[in-house]
Design brief:
Elements: E1 5-6, H1 15-24, E2 29-30, E3 34-38, E4 44-49, E5 55-60, E6 67-68, E7 75-81, E8 87-93, E9 97-103, E10 110-111, E11 120-124, E12 130-134, E13 138-142, E14 149-150
Length: 169
């Protein structure tokens, strides 16, 4: 089991804090990076690089094999793995927040939304076929970006979460 968190470098904080992290086996401390998301099988971590132009990267759970998946002029953030681990949905901010999805290796990039309204706070359905999201209320779309359906219209509605698939055992 690993716990990830964002923290300033050890040189910028009390030595006891860094020593405690090592003693409890915290694992990789994301110093300048943020929004870590473990793959469903726990072998990889998608995260946001903070190099001035936010991009999505993936690394092995032990911190090795770092691969930057996006490299563009937009600020990409909030990576979320599909339930089967084959895709990563993420937020694209080019002044207006949109939702994109790509294969887990960074190929097959698709912008699912493209409009003048912020589309954000997305959540994969347990079967990976749909995404719930916020667009001045809660909406649902197919994982391909089509079939958008508004469920609510209140700007106060946010953070959609799917219930898990019931266990058939």
């Amino acid at each position: 089991m690993q716990l990830l968190h964002r923290s300033p470098p050890c040189s910028d904080r009390p030595a006891a804090s860094c020593r405690a992290e090592r003693e409890i086996g915290v694992g990789r401390v994301l110093v300048d990076d943020w929004a870590p998301a473990f793959s469903p099988d726990g072998t990889k971590i998608a995260y946001v690089t903070n190099d001035g132009d936010r991009e999505i990267a993936v690394m092995a759970a032990d911190g090795t094999d770092v691969v930057q998946l996006t490299d563009n002029s937009t600020r990409d953030s909030l990576p979320k793995w599909s339930p089967d681990g084959t895709k990563i949905a993420y937020e694209i901010d080019d002044g207006d927040k949109e939702i994109g999805v790509m294969a887990a290796d960074g190929t097959d990039v698709v912008h699912l939304t493209d409009n003048s309204t912020h589309d954000t706070q997305f959540s994969w359905s347990p079967d990976g076929t749909r995404l719930a999201f916020v667009r001045a209320g809660i909406g649902v779309m197919n994982a391909t970006g089509n079939g958008i359906r508004r469920l609510t219209y209140s700007r106060d509605d946010r953070d959609p979460v799917w219930s898990p698939v019931p266990n058939s055992d």
